[in-house]
Amino acid sequence: MSRMISRLFAAAAVAALLAACSHVPVSTLWALRNFDAATVDPAALRAAVRLPESFEPQRGGVTLKIGWWRDGEEQAKHEVTFALKETIAPEDVAPLAGEKTTGTRIYAFRVDQADYAAIRARQKEFLEEKARNPGKTHGSFGVGADACRRGDFPAGPLLTTTYLRTEPAGPYLTVLKNLDMREAATKEKPLDGLVPPCM
C-alpha cells in the first residue's frame, strides 16, 4: 500500500469493494451501503486521519480523487484529483475528540471551496455518461493522503486510522482502523518510502 490512507472507493458497490479490507469496520460498510459519490455535496465532505504523534500529513498530500470509466476501458479512466485543506473549525474537529489515543494526533480536512464547481462538474459528467450507458459506466471516489515523519520512527506498531464524514453534522465513519504502516511496507516501497522525513 503506497498511500497512508488507502483509497476509499464509493459507488453502487461500495460495500463489496470495502469488504476486501479486513481493517474496515462492519458498521462502516453498513453506513455506506447507500452512499452515492455522484450526488454527495462536496461542501459536506470531511476526511480525517489519526497518526502516530511524530507523523504529519505532507503539505498538499491529502487529496480527493474522482473518476469514471466504461466497461472494458479501465485504462482510459477519466480521473481528476483535488488537494484537500486542513480544517480546525470546532464543528469539524470536536466530533473526533473521542478518537484521540495516547501518542497520536488527529488531522481533519475539507474540500477547498474553490474546487466545488469543478467537482460538481465531474459528478454531472459521470451521471450523464451513466444515463447514456446504464450498467456499463462505473464511478470512483477516493480520499488519500501521504504522511511524513519528524525524527526517527518510534518503536512498535505504527498504527493509522482514517475517517470520512459525508453529511453535515453527521458522524465520522471509521474507514480503515489501526492499519500498521510497518506491515504495509514492501520491498518495492519500504517504510522510509511510505513515510519519508518531513521537509
Characterize the structure shown.
The chain has six helices and nine strands; from the N terminus they run ααββββαβαββββαα. The protein has 199 residues and is of the alpha+beta class. A seven-stranded antiparallel beta sheet has the order 6-3-4-5-1-8-9. The protein has a two-stranded antiparallel ribbon with strand order 2-7. A hairpin with a 7-residue loop joins β8 (159-165) and β9 (173-180). The longest helix has 17 residues, at 116-132. The protein is globular, with a radius of gyration of 17 Å. The two termini are 22 Å apart.
Rg, nearest Å: 17 Å
Which overall shape is indicated by the principal axes computed on the Cα atoms? globular
Count the beta strands. 9
What strand order characterises the main sheet? 6-3-4-5-1-8-9
Mean pLDDT rating: 81
- The helical percent reads 10-25%
Q: Which structural class matches the secondary elements?
A: alpha+beta
Count, helices: 6
In percent terms, what proportion of residues is strand?
A: 25-35%
- Assembly state (oligomeric): single chain
One letter per element, helices H and strands E, the order comes to: HHEEEEHEHEEEEHH
Question: How far apart are the termini?
Answer: 22 Å
Largest sheet: 7 strands, antiparallel
Low-pLDDT stretches are 1-22
